[in-house]
Every structure is written in C-alpha cells, then in structure tokens.
Amino acid sequence: MPRKLIKRMCSLAVLLLMSLQMLAQETTINGTVLSGTDNEPIIGVTVREKGTKNAAITDLDGNFNLKVSNAGATLEFSYIGYTTKSLAATQNMKVVMSEDAQSLNELVVVGYQTQRKADLTGAVAVVSTKSLKTSADTDPMRALQGRVAGMTVSTDGSPSGTGTVRIRGIGSINSSQDPLYIVDGVPTTRALNSLNMNDIESMQVLKDAASASIYGSRAANGVIIITTRHGQKGDKVDINFSANVTAQYYSSQSKMKLNNSAQYATEMAQAALNDGLDPVAYAQNYGLNLNAAGGTPISVYDPATGQYNNYTVGGYYDGYINRKKTMLYSDTDWLDAISQTGIMQNYDLSVSHATDKSSVMFSVGYKNNQGILKYTNFDNISARINSTFQLTKEIKIGENVTISHSNQVASSPMENALKMSPTVPLYEEDGTTFSGPVGGMSDRQNPLRELYQNRDNNLETWRIFGNAFVELTPIKGLTLKSNFGLDYATGFHNYRTFTYYSDIVSNNIPKTDTGQSNDCVWTWSNTANYNFTLAKDHNFTVLLGTEAVKAIGQSFSAYAESYALETNDYMWPDASTGVQKAYGSQGSNTLFSLFGKIDYNWKDMLLASATIRRDGSSRFGKNHRYGTFPAATLGFRLSELLKKDWINDLKLRASWGITGNQAINNTARYALYTADYGTSRESSTAYDLTLQGSGTFPSGFRLTQSANDNLKWEGTTQYNIGLDFTLFNSSLYGTVDAYVKKVEDMLISPAFLAALGEGGATWLNGPSLQDNGMEFTLGYRNKTSFGLGYDISGNLDFFRSWVTYLPDVAKGSYAHTPTEDLVQAKKPYGSRVGYVVDGLYQTEEEVFASGQPNARLGGLKYADLDGNGIINSNDQTWIFNPVPDYSWGLNISLNYKNFDLSMFWQGVMGQDVYNDQKFQTDFWSLTDAGSNKGNRMLAAWTKDNTSSTIPALTTNNTGDEGRASTYFVETGSYLKLRTLQIGYNFPTSLIKKVKMSSARFYLSGQNLLTIKSSGYTCSDPENGNWAYPHATSLSMGLQIGF
Amino acid sequence: MRRIKYNVLKLKHMKKIFNIIAIAALSLGLTTSCSDDFLDVTPTGVADGETVNNNPEKLVTAAYAILGDDWYQYPFNLWPYGDVSSDDCLKGGSGTTDTDYHQIEVWTTLTPTLGPLDELWYHLYEAVSRCNRALIAIENNPSLLGEDVSKERIGELKFLRGHFYYKLLTMYHNIPWVDETVVNNNAVEKTSNTEFSYDELFKKIIADFEEAYNVLPAKQTDGGRANKIAAAAYLAKCYLTIAWGDGYEATDGVNNINQQYMQKVIEYTDVVKNSDYGYLEDYGDIFLPEYKNSKESIFAVQHSDYEDDNTKYGRANWANCLNGVWGMWTCGWDFHKPSQDLVNAFKTKDGLPMFDDYAKTDEHPINGSPTSQKWDPRLFHTVGMPTFPYKYESEHTLTTANSRTPNTYGYYCSMKEVPQRSKGETYNTPWQAFAMNDYVFRYTDVMLMRAEAEIETGNLSEARTIINQIRQRAKNSVAKHISYASSQVEIALYPESYFATKEMARKCLQWECRLEMAMEGERFFDLKRWGIASKTLNAYFADEQNDKYDGQTYAKYYKDAHFTAGKNEFFPVPYNQMYYIPGLYQQNKGY
C-alpha cells in the first residue's frame, strides 16, 4: 500500500487527535518513532504510559512528547499494522517499530471506496502482488493460480494465453462464468495480458455476494479489483528497473508418450492380426512394407498361431511410403520437430515522484514470450502514466492511463503433431517440400508446415485503458467523485494461407483474410461518499452513486484469393486477382445503475453494512429491464471485546447478498431474422430460383433465434460466514470462510427439440444450482534466534455443487441417465453419464454369454447395471464429477541475511478428468486408425498378455468402445511445484556507492515438478486434450531501485 | 492514526449535506428518466419479425435455399442411407473410423446414438420449419402477394414440405407432424411422434403434394421452382411406396400390393409422361453440369460455384463433398465406392442381365483389354475403374493409386456426382465440392416407377416398352463419351418372353432400377419397398467380403454385418430427440 500517501491523508486527523492533551505530569519524554521497514517516521503511533490512560500520538515527523509520572515508566508503542513494543522511557528515544506483514490497517479498495482491512465484513482476499512481479508469466491471472483460496485459475501454456478465472465453484451455465475486473475503478471483462504486472499496486478478490453486490449486475462470478501504482511522496524521484529472462522447455512431464516407427508398425500389425487380417496387406494402406528387405525388425503376437511373427518394416514403394516416391520411410519425432526452448523476456522501468500537491508515476514495460512451440509468439509493450493533482483544498483531479501494443502469433498444431505418423518424414526427399499423410492415414496436416506457414499470421492489438477523475471535498468527510473510464482496443489481423502440396493434402489457392475490430467500453460513474460520527461512537460512511456503461464492438474484414506472388509483403487484397469478399458487423449494449451503501462502525467492535444496487441493462426487455441487488453484512471484532495480549485481531463476520449476471448475447431477447447470402456453407438463404447459373441469386431471411421478452437477470444469492484472526504477536494468522451460493434463473440457450426447427434456439431463465463451500487460509511467520525469517502460508478450499432445478424443456439438453436427470441425481453441472467398464473380456465363453452387442475378446466389458442380461443405454450411470474434492496452495518463504528463498506448491485432489487422449493412446481404431498412437498400446491385451487393462487392438471399432465410459474417467489429482525462487539482496553499503536504493537478483524455476495420481495416463493433468502444452521454465531476474 | 477518520456531524454541515442530497436526488431522477433511452439498443444487421412477415417472398426463397443447405454429415440426398447401407456401395474414406457411417454399412452396430442420424433429423426439421414459417406469413396475410401468387407459393411450399417429410418418414418411421397449425398453436413440444401412424403421415404428405399439384403450373417462369409435374412425380412416388405395404418386411412386398395405389402411380406418371420432360439422349450427359437443367431434370436441387454466385463457399453440393476420388482432385476423400457386386450386376450375356449367376465370378473390365465378358454401357458412366478415363477424359486416367484404402474399400469410385476433372472443383481446402445439381426426380426415375406400377397392375407390355426405351437410350450412350469401352459393351432390349410373367417382369424392372439409378441414393429404399432387403443384403454381405480385385481382398468388415428384418427397415429415432422431452417420443421397434 502507498503508506506515505496514507500518512498524508491521515495527517490532519492525527493533528486533531493530538489536541486530546493529557494532564500535565512530572517528566516529559520525547522521541521519534521510525518504521523498521524503511526508516521513515511513522505518524500517529499511540505512545502510552503502561498501565495508565496517559498517552500521546506521534506527529508528522514521527515525534512525540509525553509527560509521564516517573522517569522509569514503561512506554507502550502501538500502531495498527505494527507489532506493539514496550520500552523503558528515556530521553530522546529512537523507537523502531516492525511492520506486520498482514497489516490490518492496510487500506483496501472495495466497491467505489477504500476500507481498512480490519473493517472488512465480507469475504475479500487481498492478494500479495510481490510474487507477481517476478513471475515468469505474461498474464497476471495465470500467475495467481493456487494463490487465493476459492479462486481457480486454469490455463494452457500458450505465449499469449490468459488464465480462466473461476471464483467459488460453478457460477453459471450458459452465461459467463468470468469474474468482473475493476482496474482503477473501471470495469472490464477483457483479458489482462496487456497489463504490465509491475504496475499493479494491489489486487483484491471480492468473493462473497455482499462484497461484490455493489457491482450488482455483473458481480455474480466475483470481482477482482486492481489498483495501479502511484507516485510516492519523497525527496527524490524514485526509479525502479527490473528485468527477467526465462528459458522454457517442453519437458517430459508434459510431453505425450508417442510411438516411434517400429512401435507404430507393431501396434498396426497387432491390430490386424487380432482381427485375423493379413498385417502385411493392412500396412500397405499406410505405405508400409512389413516384409522389407532392409528396415526395422519388429515382433508381433499372432493369436491364430500363439507365436510371435517377425517382420521388417520399411517403405512400401522401394523404401518410400508414397506411390510418388518422394517420402522416405522415416522415424520422426513430431513433438520434437515442432517444439523449441522458448525464451521469454520481461523488462520494466518506472519513474515516480510525489509532493503534497501532486503525484506522478510513469512506467514502460516490455514482455516477449516465444513459447515452446516453434513460430508462436506474444509480445507486448505498454506505457503508463498515473497522476493526481490537488488543485485546491477541495478539488483533486487525476488520471491513470495505459497504452499497450501486443502482437501475437498463435497456432494449435498439437492434435496433428500427436496424430501424424512417425513413418512420415518432415520433408519430402528434396528437403524443402513439407511432407503429408499417405494412403489410409486421415487428412492431417504436417504440423510443422502449419506452424511455419503461419509464422507471420499475426493479430496486432492496441489498447488504451484508463480513467480520469475529479474529486471534490466540499466539506470534511464528504467526497464527491466523477470518474470516466475508457477501455478501447483495436485489433488488426492479417492471416495468409499459402499454397502447399503435401502429397494428398494440398492447397492451390493463395488467400488472405485481413480485418480490423474495434471494441470500446466507456464507464461513467459518479459517487458521493460521506463519513460522519453520531453520538461519539457511532461511525457511519454513506455512499451513493450512479454509473452508466456503454460497450460497442465493430468488426470488418476482407477475404481475397489468388496472388501472383506468395510473400507477406505482396499478399494484400489490392493485389489479389481472384474472388474478394467483405464481412462486417456491429454490436453494442448499455447498462445504467444506481447504488448506495452504508457502513456502520461501533467502537471498532461492531461493524455492519448494507448495500443496494439497481441495474438496468439493454439486454433485457422493458418488463424486466431493471434488477435490484441488495446485501448486508455484520462483523464483530472479538479482539476488541476480549482484549487479550495474544490476540492481535479476531473478527467474526457474516454476510448475505444478491448479485446478478447478464453476460449473454446483446441480442439474446430478440427474434433474429438474418439474410445469410453465403457466409456459411450450410445455412444460406440464397437460391438460384431463376436458373441464372451465375450472378447474384435471390435471397431471403431465416430465423436464427426466437424472442423472449420475459428474459430477466440471473440472480445469485450468497451467504457467507467467516473468521479472521491474527494471534501470538501476529505470528499466526488466518481466515476461514464458509458459504452457500444459490444461483437461480440461470440464463441459458438450451439445445432444443429438433421439431421446433430453425430458430428454435431461445434464451430463457432456466436452471438453478447450489454451491456450498469452505475456504481456509493459515499462515505462520517468525524469525529464529539466528536470524532466519520464515513465513509459511497455505490455503485450501473445497466446494460441493448440485443442480437444484431444470426446466422441462431443457432437461434433455443436460446430462441424464435414462431414469435420472441432474436434479434427481443431485449432481453438479458438467457431470457426465456413461457405462461402467468392468475389465476386459478374457474368454470367448464370456463374450458369448455377455449380452453386450458386438462384444469381443479382449474388448471392454460393460457392467450390466440393471441386471437384465442385455447391455444397452439403460446401463448408463453417473461416471464423471467435474468438482474436485479440494484444491490447495502452499507458500514457503525464508529469508536469511541478504538471501531469500520462496517455494510455491499447488495441488488439486480428488479430481475427475475425462481423458480424451485415451482415444489415441489406448485404441488403434477409435478415431483415425493409422494415425500415430500412444506407446501404451504396446502393452495391450493379447492371449499372451491377459493381465493387461488396455483393450486388445483392433482395426475396427465394432464394439462401440468410444462410448462414454469409466474407461476414460481418471483421477487427475496432482501436486505441482509451481515456483522455486532464490533471491539475493545486494548489501546497502555496496549499492549506495552506485546510488541505488535497492538491488535484488533472483533465480527462479517454474513447473519444476509434477506429482500426479498413478491412475492418470496423460502426462499433464492440466492438459487432457490438445491444448498448448505447459512449459517447465527457468528464469533469472534483477530488480533495482534508485 | 492511519485510519479513516469519522467526522463529527455538525449542524452547519447538515444543511450543506441536505442540499447536496437534494441535488443528487434531482440529478439521479433526471438520469433515470433518460436511462430508458440509453438502455434501448436494437440489434444490427438483422431483420425483425414484422419486416420479414411483410416480405413473404423472402421466406419462400429461404425455404427453397434450404434444399441445398446440407452437408456430408446430413446429406439430403441420403447417399449414406440409400447407397452405403445397400449392396451397391462401400463407405470408403481412410478406413472404417472415418466418419460415423460405418454403422450404417454393417447395420449390426447401428444404435440411436449415431451422430449423423440426429443431425439429419434436426436439419430436415429445420427445413420443414422454413416452409411452415413462409406458409404462416402468406396465409396470415394473402393480400401481400395477391391471391393468385399466394396460392401458387403455398403450393410450392407444400411441395417443399412434402419433400422433406417424405425423407423424414421413409428414414425414421415414427416422426412428429409439425405443420403451420401446430406452430400457430405453440404445440410443437406437445406433438408426439406416434400421434399419426405411418399410413396417416403418408396421407398428410400426399395431401401436401396434392395441393401443390392442384395449384402449380406445369411450367414455372422461374425454372428453379417446383411445378405441377414435379408434384405429380412425388405423388407417384408416395403412392408407389405405400402400394407395397408399410415398409416392414413382414407386411410389405408382393403379397401386400394395393392395386388402387398402383393405379394412382400410373395416373400421376401419365402426367409426367405427357409433359415437356423426356429422356436426355445420352446417358452420360445426365451427369454433366452443362446439362444440369435438361429435359431429364424434373426437379433438382440447384448448385453453383462460388466464383459464379458471389457467396463465400459457393452454393455447391456439400452433401457429396467427400465423394471425389483419391488423388485426382485437390482433396478427394474417396467416399461412396461402388461394390464389386454392383459392377457384377452390369454384366450382360447377349446384351441382357445375368440375373442368377451375375456374381458367380468377379470380373473387372480393363481398358483396352476386352475379355469375353460384356457389360451394360451404363457401368462405364457410373463406376470409375482403374485403367479407364475418369469421367471420359483420357488425360485423367484412373489407376490403382486412385484408391485410398484399397484393402478396405477396393478400387472403384463413383462418377455420377462429380464433374469432369478438367472442369475443376468448386472450393478446396479443407473441403472441395462440386457445382453438381442433385436430382430429386429425373424423368427416367419416374418412368421406372410407372413401369413398376404397370407390372403390378398387370400391364406387362407397357412396362417392357418403358424399360426398353431406357435400355435403348443406354445403348445409344456409347459413342459420345465411352467409345474406349465400346468393345466391352453389349446391351439388348428385352424380348417379350422376359415379360411373360409378373415375377419375371418384376425381376427385369428391379434390375433395371438398380443399373439405371445406381449410386443415386435410391437402392436401399427400393429394396425395402420391394420387401427384399434382408434377403438381398445378407447374401451380399456374405459374398462381398470374399471378393478380390487383382489379388487384393477388401470389405472384410462385412463379416460383422447383418440386416435384421423387422428392425432395420427404418433407422432409429435419434437418442437425443428421445430425451429432450422425456416420454414425448417413442422409439421404432427393435432399437
């Protein structure tokens, strides 16, 4: 927190209280109180003669004068946020107080106002931003994974990727589940990867409805408040510089285990032999000769003879795998071919200064992330200027603005990389033509070609994000503020498709898709904040406000084909000689809100607040345009009542509130008739009625959505009780929260009965669900006698969720067994049904007796749940629960002399993963027979290997074994060492010589270790499909201040 | 003190505060009243219901447009369900896991959960809804188009609706009937798929076609619109289908023939016969894009190329986008591959089919190497074979390399749905399609229906006349396009003796249907109508898996195939549809 700033804000108050002069005593003691953190004076420290009511308060310079009864008196220095200190009174005392890490007096930004952390009565997590500044991540949200109890961040590993944030369980079904971000008072739901992490001063997560309800309609998924840095008052200009270089690796812990060519051919031959087919003939489909004169020897079990057959694998066409004889039989490691060691760099420079009248902060940040897949990239440069000016005693103006530029090249080659056969070379024999699949292989693209030809297909984004405000203080305690916020982003993309001839997959038309999109959101809020005291101990703060938000999005793009030259410079639509098309659209929405809040504080012991917000949204019809969102909280500071030495703070709090969700399409309530001349292949409204053959055809309208004028807000009611404690000289601290969250009238656009036909889609207020959960945060910090400081903190959270209501028309759209829907089964949204796999068929007799259609030896055996002797859809049950048992994070930081070490572990326990990769790692022919597979299959069931749990390979999925079943459900529990960092602070004596005020060097590793359930067959529990893989990385960095 | 300081509330402040509150309240009041305007945001780039309903012609156009709004996963020409399911054709592609159609090919693994079944059902009802929406707009306000035009458009829409319902009913049996009354009563979600029997549903479809027949002109100024002749053809087809029975083998076939319905077929095909439509002179021309709206074409789904129609992807034939042969096109995925059994069926002896021993041996015509085996010329127009020019162009000759997975699907390819290679393709990467019309009815098809009805009503000689006309045209279709095969071709007209008995005549007719209409999506539905699907298919499954081409075995997967009579005549009601509203729909028997 900007401590000096707060000091200044509080100084007037301090002076006032100083006038509470004590009765004259015998001796006057004077002295200065300094902060141990920065040696700056502390204003407003209570200096009390122990055992008396005699006290004084330090002034602006940290000085105090106190008349004491005798010279040997003990003085007690207390200041919230600092450890209380007792010292014998002497003249000219120099008292150094040490700060509590978890400062209770810290001011936190909550809705439209700031509040002391000690006064909070809602579930608000204050995020330590320190670790963000050294994190090797381009998105601040990704860096928060596991840091906040009750907040789940999921992400892929792509350079431009952003974290998907979920607060407290499942918040909605069809409308958005993303939290609302408030950056310097301006709401946004746009990703934050263009934000410079070093600019972040503080971050608060408002988890319960009561805290968030001041943001009403958009707060149902929680609110994350971010405040950026300001200039700090001081004699000199502060200059800070930091740099970080990270090397990222595609390490074995996230790499899929694939076949090499010999293993691939072995599995292929095994599948054929199991089916009684001639493997030599079968392999020809894939360009392989199993009786090659020279090649790789393999040995495959033949169930017909009970012997192992030996083959030699080579290319079918004289060593080539294609008939044209351009691709030599190879042993390609496709993952290796597309990956690289990616370098990521982060630099930040900031300059700031502040006086009594003004403050200015300027910063520039640059980040560049190459990613671990070749030819993918993200870079961002941003500049920020934050300033405030106190024009008169009553008027203050200020602004915070950041301009950033990002450039990203994204590609998703993973599925092709996994599926491309290792027998295919990277290039044809000429060494330059990218190879492609052959024969019976599915039409997969060469992933390296995809990456390479995509290398300049960039999306460039400029974003201006900021706000300007004027603040009036006409009378003491009253603040009127008008704040205008703007979030403007303009993106330009230029995607080129070049020609290529990769054997059977080819493209002979060069084409471009170029376009621009503009997204502008402005927010204008006006607030009045007044705090006053009635009858001495009754303190009130009243907030009233209005807010208007308008969002407009526009996009325009052009498609053009046929170019004489295929270069980036040439391929612009002007130069195209073929078909040219233009596309464009616009959408907008508005919100208007009124809100008020009253806070009450009685002797710092009893705390209460009430909030109400009324929001109108353009997304709803006149009947239901406005929604009202009330909330109330109550807090009780037990510590103020008990007044025990060992209790620094103890607070019990309870809250209730309603928040809303309206994150649906702008046009959700309307009937939409569109004229689709021909932007889609299968939903055109144009037809050649007149048999003209060419030109523009007659075109009509089609209904794409039916109207619902009764659409209204989705509402979330949440109850929360919590306990905050700081004990034993502030060494033990923690928070416990329990909540009940009921989401009602969820906005959905469900799948619908086909007979309704086109336009059967409609938005409606449908299902309800409930989440119950608890969150724990506990920490212990201390210092050993030999000077090792340590701080160990952990968080843990869990929730249970279930659907409580489904409208009749939507029941079939959600998971259900033949007899039970989600409500009847009390299951969470996202649950899946399927068959229960009960091992593999071991004998022909078992197969024959099974009652399972198309059962096969060595195939999956489905349990006959209804016991009627037939396996059919009635044998399905609930097999997958998306809610983990619990999630946790553990942070350990140590410091000794100039060294510091921190370690962050994060884990999820009892989590079901539906492992789609198993289609490729456990079955030869569930999808893409002939594509590459996992090498797990080498251990599949045969008559010679009956203990295997992997089904026998087959060329043909006659048993429908890809149906949803427990075979694909695995326990995805994991524990990851997210960060390990060692830092060194250069000694002050040394750096003073070079006029530095601080200098720190650190080494850090990310994702160094993953421990996962033994039953999980994928490499990375966080990536059960084809997403951009997570990297393991090593970084080093430098942080210096002048 | 580092804390928020509370001010002592003093009287002199109170006044000020009240003033501020008053001003604030006032301004809030003002902003609130303005906010309703602020909150009115109307959608852009779309039309509202009122505008649309005042332009019913646009809704009619959209109803026509959906004829071509299909895709290989829900092809309205039903090629997977009419051909892959039958003895004419193998699925093709990269292997049995390529697309979900393998289940339709072997039948035993077919379950209601099969994805394409749901997609087809959904999209056909989408099509029905476009018709209903246009009907409602016109019927609610006939003055907009004038009485005459309104009547005509209603006729066209009912034709289109009948067309989509015909497909739904013959595919799925238990289907809900949704028409403009059901929509107006908001009763779609209460309409069961057993409210009407199969027979009643057919009557409803017939009623739609009858209305079209009664009001439409024999020739439309806009040639793409449905006319009276097309309606007559459809009426004939409806009656022909139900004339044989209810579709289930036990209660369908020669023992269940309804003579009255057969008479209707003759009645309506007479209208077609006496129209301007007729046989196109060369069989090969029927399947060339330059002849796409010839006199052979009674009703066809219009398709065009994106370079011609200003659309992004072209109103091309995406239903058949997988069906280009391997290695010939930029991306031909080699689906829809003729079976050896079909090729064998084209064998002739003395110019006539080898009814009983056609499949005893496998023969493979080789270009330039004639054997003693002779073939019906239509083989060379229908089936692409190694060594022969692909669609008549010798510079594009097929080889064994033009098969993607020969030891699964053999070496033949289908040529009717593709243009000549030199004419190019419509759009490439990742899909290619052809600007080839899909025939709903071509003249010959209607004449074959007529011949069928003539046989069943006892007029065998008339049937022979028709069939011989068709054969004569085939005979005449060698020189223009397939002269390279002339030495292997032999076809003759049926002598009277072949039409001496109903049984014999039926055999000739059914054979002729197979040859003439091969690979046009009809075969399975024909077998079902005749009540011979299980017999024919199960024999085929047993045989085809042992066939070889050039030493190469294929179609081994047919060992798992079996057609179950009493169940497989119809496809199951899609699983998803059964569960949207529990209890509303009933599954077909056997599934």
Topology:
The complex is a heterodimer of chains A (1042) and B (591).
Chain A: H1 3-18, E1 27-35, E2 46-49, E3 55-57, E4 63-68, E5 74-78, E6 85-88, E7 93-97, E8 107-110, E9 113-116, E10 124-127, E11 151-154, E12 164-167, E13 180-183, E14 186-188, E15 200-206, H2 209-212, E16 223-228, E17 238-249, H3 261-274, H4 279-284, E18 288-289, E19 296-302, E20 307-315, H5 334-338, E21 342-354, E22 358-369, E23 377-390, E24 395-409, H6 414-419, H7 447-453, E25 458-472, E26 478-497, E27 500-502, E28 505-507, E29 511-534, E30 538-561, E31 580-602, E32 606-617, E33 626-637, H8 638-642, E34 647-661, E35 672-674, E36 702-705, E37 714-727, E38 732-744, E39 747-748, E40 764-765, E41 768-783, E42 788-805, H9 822-825, E43 832-834, E44 837-840, H10 844-848, E45 860-862, E46 877-880, E47 886-896, E48 899-909, E49 912-914, H11 918-921, E50 969-971, E51 974-985, H12 988-992, E52 998-1012, E53 1032-1041
Parallel strand pairs in A: 1-7, 13-16
Antiparallel strand pairs in A: 1-4, 2-3, 2-5, 5-6, 8-9, 10-15, 11-12, 13-14, 15-16, 17-21, 17-53, 18-20, 19-20, 21-22, 22-23, 23-24, 24-25, 25-26, 26-29, 27-28, 29-30, 30-31, 31-32, 32-33, 33-34, 34-37, 35-36, 37-38, 38-41, 39-40, 41-42, 42-47, 43-46, 44-45, 47-48, 48-51, 49-50, 51-52, 52-53
Chain B: E1 7-8, H1 11-38, H2 49-53, H3 56-65, H4 79-84, E2 89-92, H5 102-106, H6 115-140, H7 147-172, H8 180-184, H9 198-215, H10 228-243, H11 259-273, E3 297-301, H12 306-309, E4 335-338, H13 340-345, E5 347-349, E6 352-353, E7 374-375, H14 378-382, E8 383-384, E9 389-390, E10 393-397, H15 406-409, E11 413-414, E12 438-442, H16 443-456, H17 460-475, H18 502-516, H19 523-530, H20 533-544, E13 548-549, E14 552-553, H21 575-580
Antiparallel strand pairs in B: 2-4, 3-12, 5-6, 5-7, 8-11, 9-10, 13-14
Helix pairs in contact in B: 3-6, 3-7, 6-7, 7-9, 9-10, 10-11, 10-16, 11-16, 16-17, 16-18, 17-18
